[in-house]
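Consider the following input, taken from an annotated entry for Translation machinery-associated protein 7 homolog (Drosophila arizonae).
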Amino acid sequence: MSGREGGKKKPLKAPKKEGKDLDEEDLAFKQKQKEQQKALDAAKQQAAKKGPLVGGGIKKSGKK
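Applying the prediction step yields:
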């Protein structure tokens, strides 16, 4: 038994994936997704600036 046989074996390299041919619909869909993600990020930043939402609903005093 030689010293090189033991231990973890390296996995075979996967072949490189070919670039997909994207048509107009795919490109438009990806662009729309990017815009939606940007809008969502902007909304998250705006919400973080304002702080937690308070109020709304019925407030109960501790009295009975």
